[in-house]
Amino acid sequence: MLERLNEALEHIESHLDQQIEVAELARIAVTSEYHFRRMFSALAGISLSEYIRRRRLTIAGAEVLAGERTLLEIAVRYGYGSGEAFARAFRAVHGVGPGDARRTGASLRSQPRMSFRLIVEGSSSMRYRIVEKEQFRVVGKKARVPLVHEGMNPAIADFIRSIDQETMRRITALSDQAPEGIVGVSDNLDPSRAEGTELDYYHGVVTGADPAPEDLDALTVPAGTWAVFENSGPFPQALQYLWRDVFTQWFPSNPYQSRPGPEILRTRLSQDAAQADAELWIPVERTAD
Fold first, then answer.
1. Among residues 287, 280, 252, 278, which one has the least CA distance to residue 264?
2. pTM of the full predicted structure?
3. How do residues 135-194 score in pLDDT, each as one tens digit?
């Protein structure tokens, strides 16, 4: 898997001055567009679109300083429809406009080329199981919140606090299948998975109840295969590291890829809320042989 991802990175490098299709990158990596975006953001720490943008503007910056092409020629070469659009994007990355950079020979920022390597530490193993699950529903309360990669998500914390105890009691009573009890469900994420993009967050339970109470939100989840991962550790870091490890360690080493669908997190906190036991459900499908 990593070798094929690196071949896709080579394709990006050789097409920075052309249209880059995610479908072609996924074809090179022998995976789906959905899984390719997920794998890339997990491994690289930034979204695919942001990496391509930074690489283009890194190369464009070198051409600006070289002075061999006009600024408009460089803008068009790297896919910008106007000098103004190019200048805005250039300033966002380099902190200075292209005209000023050329006149003053300013220092510019560089996004290095990436390559992926699998580091095998052998110090721990991941606990997981594969589950085939019939159609079910997530029932609870829903909010649209921003994606936060590290640390507590204030919007989710505020949303959970806003749900009154009687409503939580009613929601909890609907739980009738695994994962049992209250869960956090993330759905409808932006394909880029960039920090700050929005997602639907459900605070509720997994249930077969149909229909759900009218005052609650419901998400119907089709039948499918799930990879279920478990870990314990400091809250919330251990939960976020679990998600990272799934995509950087487990997927490259196993014959599965992620498929569209919600991610379900069941968390049990210690009394002081400093530690957590977590169970993460990721929708998956077997890769082609």
1. 280
2. 0.73
3. 999 999 999 999 887 777 899 999 999 999 999 999 999 999 999 999 999 999 887 777
Residue 263 CA to residue 243 CA, distance in Å, equals 10
Report d(CA 255, CA 137) in Å as an integer.
27
